Task: inverse folding
């Protein structure tokens, strides 16, 4: 299909759910589907989401993931499936721990550790959600790109207007359009384009996928560079995510991001994710390669 014959939102969302719903090969080995039409390097959020989904397949239904920590070792290749080997390191009454190795072409490409907990009551506090414009007043990222096509390379333009299961609306100028040095703070609303008819495990796997969509670009903002710049070599190095509460990825979520530091060819980024009523549902951090080519 093309832009003139758009893919229905329900089909796009179902495609992502299918992509993340790994298939069992044995009790502790799972295979992730290949993204239809994928070319080149696999998106890091896909590997994280599939690895988490594999770990979830080995966990009792009353436990939900509350944190994960992942290290990227090699780029994934869209031409091959990924196998996920899960080790059940610990199962207690309240907590469980899983280690996952993502393997492609007989080599590990990602290590992930995830911790799961039976939900319980406890002391509670949170930071307040930033006071930003609501999503209904903002442009969809793809529409924003179409209006400013002359500011983008052909590759950047195709990337931003490609069919996506996510609706994304930036507060202010999207990081993809930054060309002047500015403070490394960014706010982005996002949601799935159609209802996700799945349990909380899948909603959290999709959120894990989504947290890799824009975080790395925040560290580039003080340097006036775009993530897709030909002068830049970039990649995710590690990724950590904490789930604070249940999440509904088919309703608006505010992703507020900042970058306290960059140096030595790396950029460090932080993110907080709020639901539209101001509840902090997740937090994440990521360090990425941001090497300027000679």
Result:
């Amino acid at each position: 299909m093309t832009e003139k014959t758009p893919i229905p939102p329900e089909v796009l969302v179902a495609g992502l759910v299918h992509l993340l719903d790994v298939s069992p090969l044995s009790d502790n080995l799972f295979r992730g589907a290949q993204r239809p039409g994928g070319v080149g390097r696999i998106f890091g959020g896909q590997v994280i989401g599939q690895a988490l989904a594999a770990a979830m397949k080995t966990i009792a239904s009353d436990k939900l993931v509350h944190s994960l920590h992942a290290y990227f070792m090699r780029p994934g290749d869209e031409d091959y499936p990924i196998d996920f080997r899960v080790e059940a390191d610990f199962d207690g009454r309240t907590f469980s721990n899983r280690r996952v190795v993502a393997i492609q072409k007989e080599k590990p490409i990602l290590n992930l550790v995830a911790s799961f907990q039976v939900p319980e009551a406890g002391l509670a506090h949170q930071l307040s959600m930033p006071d930003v414009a609501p999503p209904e007043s903002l442009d969809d990222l793809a529409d924003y790109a179409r209006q400013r096509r002359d500011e983008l390379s052909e590759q950047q333009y195709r990337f931003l207007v490609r069919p996506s299961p996510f609706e994304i609306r930036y507060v202010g100028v999207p990081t993809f359009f930054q060309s002047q040095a500015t403070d490394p703070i960014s706010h982005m609303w996002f949601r799935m384009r159609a209802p996700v008819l799945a349990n909380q495990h899948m909603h959290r796997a999709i959120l894990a996928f989504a947290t890799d969509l824009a975080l790395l670009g925040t560290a580039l903002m003080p340097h006036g560079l775009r993530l897709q710049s030909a002068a830049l070599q970039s990649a995710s190095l590690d990724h950590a995510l904490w789930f604070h509460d249940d999440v509904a990825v088919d309703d608006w979520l505010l992703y507020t991001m900042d970058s306290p530091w960059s140096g030595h060819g790396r950029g460090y980024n932080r993110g907080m994710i709020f639901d539209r009523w101001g509840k902090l549902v997740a937090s994440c951090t990521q360090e990425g390669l941001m090497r300027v080519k000679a």
Observations:
- The helical segments are 9-20, 44-56, 141-147, 154-161, 200-210.
